[in-house]
Amino acid sequence: xxxxxxxxxxxxxxxxxxxxxxxxxxxxxxxxxxxxxxxxxxxxxxxxxxxxxxxxxxxxxxxxxxxxxxxxxxxxxxxxxxxxxxxxxxxxxxxxxxxxxxxxxxxxxxxxxxxxxxxxxxxxxxxxxxxxxxxxxxxxxxxxxxxxxxxxxxxxxxxxxxxxxxxxxxxxxxxxxxxxxxxxxxxxxxxxxxxxxxxxxxxxxxxxxxxxxxxxxxxxxxxxxxxxxxxxxxxxxxxxxxxxxxxxxxxxxxxxxxxx
Length: 260
Hints:
Layout (H helix, E strand, L loop, with lengths): L1 E6 L4 H4 E2 L2 E6 L14 E3 L4 H4 L1 H8 E7 L5 H7 L6 E6 H4 L17 E3 L3 E5 L9 H8 L1 E3 L7 E7 L4 E3 L2 E6 L5 E6 L6 H6 L2 H8 L4 E7 L6 E5 L6 H6 L4 H13 L4
Parallel strand pairs: 4-8, 7-9, 13-14
Antiparallel strand pairs: 1-6, 2-3, 3-12, 5-10, 6-13, 11-12, 14-15
């Protein structure tokens, strides 16, 4: 399965370092939705049950991904106003289909978007707090307001992650797990990032990672993609600056045009 991580411009450099891919997992209490884990109610007759959300937040973390690399709102909200990137991840190569490593694997991780919160009360205790059914009900349900995200979550116990300061990291040693990088329509510094990250540059030059530039899809409100060709030689790009203004004029005309 190929899924996509939306990131800001500064985060791409952190993805590739020291021979591994660095992916940040986050406890649900740090997400931007205050209703996280409240799709189902817990059994309020048990004090232990009511404390389980705290236990889950302290011991479980999520990697949030999307099925769609050309989602206009995702670019606006999670990729620094289209200045960042969408990174394609092969979940099998990353180990995210492995049930021995993940509480919730990529094939199990589709978010269910609900019009109403479920009234059934879950009986949760230390004995079943890590059951897949419990975790799915609490961490894979969200309000229908969020359905535009087309989200898939990978969920792991924190004991399988590495803490770097305040951040939880999963080190993916198979560098082939990243297959594509989509460059935001407003991004200006991709080549500089690559030149300063030899790990990433090598993957691009070896054609392990395919590059795409996002742009307007003609006559619509949608995004489209086109192949992007990275150059190792800044002076080559400098010689092309004579064409820069003409190219910008042509692109502006293409973006402005709406088919009859």
